[in-house]
Amino acid sequence: MGETTRILIIDDDENIRKVLTTILEDEGYDVESVDTAKKAIERTRRKFYNLALIDIRLPDMEGIELLTKMKNTTPKIRKIIITGYPTLQNAVEAVNRGADAYIMKPFDMEKVLEEIKDQLKKQQNEKRYSQERVAEFIETRVRELDVEKEVAHKKNT
C-alpha cells in the first residue's frame, strides 16, 4: 500500500485499548487510542484514520451516536462497533447509522484481524472506484468541451 494504515481505538476500558494497540501495532498498523467519544471526534478532525474500533458504551456518548459524528468528520473511515452487550437491536441500529461491522467481546483476535483486513480491502476498493469515476468524469467532460468548442467554431465560420 505504501502508506501506513492508521487505526483509532475508542474504548473506555484501558486494558482493552492496551491489548488491541499492542496486537495491531505488531501487525504493522499505526494505532492510537482514546477513552471518550469527544476525544475521538477531536482526533478525527485533525488526522485521517483508515479504521476505527468503537466501543458501543462510552462514558460521554453511545458508540452508535459517535458513528454519525465521525461520519461527518471523516467520511471514508471504516467503522467497527465492538460490544460486550450484543443485541439484535444494537446490531441493526449500528449498521443503520453507518457501522461497517459489528464485533462482540470477548474477542477472537483472529476474527478481529480478519475483519480489519476485510474492511481495509473494501476501503481500498472504494478509493480505487472513486478515482476511476473521477477520471471517467474528467475524460467525458473534456470530450464534451471539445465538441462544444467545435460547434462554436463552426457557427463562427
Tell me briefly what this model is.
The chain is α/β, with parallel strands linked by helices and 157 residues long. The chain has helices at 14-26, 37-46, 63-73, 88-96, 109-156; strands spanning 6-10, 30-34, 51-55, 78-83, 101-104. It contains five helices and five strands.
Description:
With about 160 residues, this protein is of the alpha/beta class. Helices cover about 60% and strands about 15% of the residues. It is built from 5 helices and 5 strands, in the order βαβαβαβαβα. It has helices spanning about 15-25, 35-45, 65-75, 90-95, 110-155; strands at about 5-10, 30-35, 50-55, 80-85, 100-105. The protein has a 5-stranded parallel sheet, sandwiched between helices. α3 (about 65-75) links the parallel β3 and β4 (about 80-85). α2 runs parallel beside α3 (about 65-75). The longest helix has about 50 residues, at about 110-155.
Give descriptors for this structure.
157 residues, alpha/beta, 5 strands, 58% helix
